[in-house]
């Protein structure tokens, strides 16, 4: 009599495991690319702030994975691939935001690493490191409970898109964007560059715009979201917006 082995309860399916490994490779390549851009802009690898940023960022990615994977391995897999149906506004904003993010790395390298236009001292770098670590809290909390938290804005009808109301979604409707808004200036501070705050601010503005457009899309097209928005009234900052 032949038997078919079944995955253990709580085990990650092989197809999902493959996508998670791909996501891990993507993130490792991303960190490497950030380092290359920083050091090329700085003209040297002897830049402690850049090494501190790369090391802390990598450690936070690992910590986030260790927290999220046992709770929501599916979203780590889904974030490894591009999905069709992304809203047009999001394709445009992602391009502009990528340029602004690249600007943080390049300007920081030119400022703090090469020319010293407006370098910031170690207390600012320390504050940036603390903020960077804190920014991962809402990100990890959102990823742990939201199986629909893909990298682009779309209504995921083929995945049974539903409103999430647990975890950090009890307080704000877009907790992951909260983490991103903290992370952007934290990068500039940790890298020790006052001028890098300029592209960081540009990226923050684009993120706020994206939040508003995504919220409008969900209100219009996702069943149950309008009712949820009446209970959880604020998008990013409780009591403000």
In a nutshell, what does this entry contain?
With 241 residues, the chain is mostly helical. 66% of the residues lie in helices and 0% in strands.
Distance between the termini: 63 Å
The arrangement of helices and strands along the chain is HHHHHHH
Number of domains: 1
Extended strand count: 0
CATH architecture: Up-down Bundle
Estimated structural class: mainly alpha
| Beta fraction | under 5%
Number of H/I helices: 7
Largest sheet: none
What's the mean pLDDT score?
91
CATH topology: Four Helix Bundle (Hemerythrin (Met), subunit A)
Question: How does the overall form come out from the CA principal axes?
Answer: globular
Question: What share of residues is helical?
Answer: 55-70%
Level-1 CATH class name:
Mainly Alpha
The Rg value, from CA coordinates, equals 19 Å
Low-confidence stretches: 1-7
